[in-house]
Design a protein that fits this description.
This is Protein nucleotidyltransferase YdiU. The structure is a single chain. With 472 residues, this protein is α+β, with helices and mostly antiparallel strands. It contains 15 helices and 12 strands. Strands 2, 6, 7, 8, 9 and 10 form a 6-stranded antiparallel beta sheet that branches. Strand 4 and strand 5 form a beta hairpin. Helix 3 runs parallel beside helix 15, helix 6 packs antiparallel against helix 7 and helix 10 runs antiparallel to helix 12. The structure holds adenosine-5'-triphosphate (ATP).
């Protein structure tokens, strides 16, 4: 594997050179064979992969750096954040011809570590590793990871845990907050250089355009709106939609206290430190918009003025609605939109919310005879179901065909928190088999996998009491 160092080449205004600080006795927990193929590293032994993930082996051409950024956290601007525990090794070309960043997460102290220890623990690393794959398999743009390691290095959170690290792979680790940093510190040449870098690397067709910043803002707005629409459609909550966790490419990044919704709750809050519900499930679309306005403010010095910035981001609601409406139509098995459809959807969402019906199981069972068993208030359900049947009868395809097409968009296997917790508990006792089993299962979310039927069941009672720790 050979690396280039295009981001490091931007110079010390953008990042700081750092050396990874390896963990003690690294042990490979899991290797993502999809990414092995993508990065053509099938010739790496397990030991080499562990060394790579532990920062002990830097591939030829790599120049480890940590990136500076800032951002709005829970609506409050924090002037300097940066990679406090992440180290970008460099970039490498994938077998698809795309240039990917290789970034270690949990590799030790950096100039941006502030009060942190530069480390990540096993449970949070497993969560990030698996959820990147879960979302990717659902067709949602996201960072992913090549592998993850555990170690003997003690790391202190609420208790002693073990240090772990992840080798994150992404088309970009540039965040809205990266632009905010240069804008708020009035480093406008750097801001412009950053736009040029992103355009040259990801949107070369705009290289000669006069309005690169405007194009970028418009594209980031569209991609963010569509990514959030995809989250909503699968019932996924990010939990910490700070502007430093918003990728300029509209990819899902930073898996913290995220959660797939089990029993549907429109106002579900997966982050237990989010006291006011800023990042509640139903607020995600608006927060995505809010973050786009933070990006617009950051890019303002490179735009024609406020009016242009506003014009560009005000497309967000229509980008979101268009994408979300098309995803919902497909989830309900409808090929086109008809008057009354959104009321039909709203009615069943309200019923599911009131009864906390399992979101994923409902959609997977839609159109099938046993659907009514999911509801307590049968009359209310039947009243809705009659309307739905009438609507489905207007479709050109047969019910069998509709059910088949719905099973391509309504997953059976999702990465529920309780499944993750079982895998984490085992891994913390040295058994990584459940992590690897889950990886296999969530890779095929839409397929029937009879041997793993129980992984599609509704969660056990104890899942409702699970609180994902925010210290990671
Ligand atoms: N243990 C730690 N040591 C040093 N810095 C940390 C640590 N945990 C978080 N940070 C820093 O605090 C800020 C916010 O943390 P957050 O949890 O959102 O990000 P993260 O999970 O570390 O990183 P990323 O966004 O790259 O996935 C980031 O600047 C991050 O680097």
């Amino acid at each position: 594997m050979k690396l280039v160092h295009t981001y490091a080449d931007l110079g010390s205004t953008f990042s700081s050179h750092v050396q990874p600080q390896p963990l003690d006795t690294p042990e490979l927990v899991s290797v993502n064979q999809d990414i092995v193929q993508l990065l053509s590293c099938a010739d790496f032994s397990e030991e080499q992969l562990a060394q790579l993930c532990n920062g002990e082996m830097i591939p030829e051409g790599g120049q480890p750096v940590s990136m500076v950024y800032s951002g709005h956290q829970f609506g409050v601007y924090v002037p300097r954040l940066g990679d406090g525990r992440a180290i970008l090794l460099g970039e490498t070309e994938g077998s698809d011809g795309v240039l990917y960043d290789l970034q270690l997460k949990g590799a030790g102290l950096t100039p941006y570590s502030r009060d942190g220890d530069g480390r990540a623990v096993l449970r949070s690393t497993i969560r990030e590793y698996l959820c990147g794959e879960a979302l990717h398999s659902l067709g949602i743009p996201t960072t992913r990871a090549l592998c993850l390691i555990n170690s003997n290095t003690p790391v202190y959170r609420e208790q002693v845990e073990t240090g772990a690290a992840l080798l994150r792979v992404s088309e970009s680790h540039i965040r809205f907050g990266t632009f905010e940093y240069f804008s708020h510190t009035r480093q406008l040449d750097a801001l412009s250089q950053l736009v040029d870098y992103v355009v040259e690397r990801h949107f070369p067709e705009w290289t000669d355009a006069d309005d690169k910043a405007a194009n970028l803002l418009s594209e980031a707005t569209r991609r963010t709106a569509e990514m959030v629409a995809q989250w909503q459609a699968v019932g996924w909550c990010h939990g910490v939609m700070n502007s430093d966790n918003m990728s300029i490419l509209g990819h899902t990044i930073d898996y913290g206290p995220f959660g797939f919704i089990d029993g549907f709750n429109a106002v579900h809050i997966c982050n237990h430190s989010d006291w006011h519900g800023r990042y509640a499930f139903n607020r995600q679309p608006d927060i995505g918009y809010w973050n786009c306005s933070a990006l617009a403010s950051a890019l303002l010095p490179l735009l024609e003025g406020k009016e242009q910035a506003e014009d560009l981001i005000k497309q967000y609601p229509s980008f979101f609605s268009k994408k979300y409406a098309s995803l919902l139509r497909a989830k309900f098995g409808l090929s086109s939109s008809k008057e009354g459809d959104s009321q039909l959807f709203d009615e069943v969402f309200q019923l599911m919310h009131d009864e906390r019906t399992d979101y994923t199981i409902f959609f997977r069972a839609l159109g099938k005879p046993d659907l009514q068993d999911l509801f307590i208030d049968r009359d209310r359900f039947n009243s809705w179901s009659n309307k739905y049947e009438k609507r489905i009868a207007q479709e050109p395809s047969s019910l069998d065909e509709i059910i088949k097409s719905m099973s391509q968009v309504n997953p059976k296997y999702i990465l529920r928190n309780h499944l993750l917790q079982i895998a984490i508990n085992k891994a913390e006792n040295g058994d990584y088999s459940e992590v690897n089993k889950l990886l296999k299962i969530i890779r095929q979310p839409f397929s029937e996998q009879p041997e793993f039927e129980s992984y599609a069941d509704s969660p056990p009672d104890w899942a409702g009491d699970l609180e994902v720790s925010c210290s990671s």
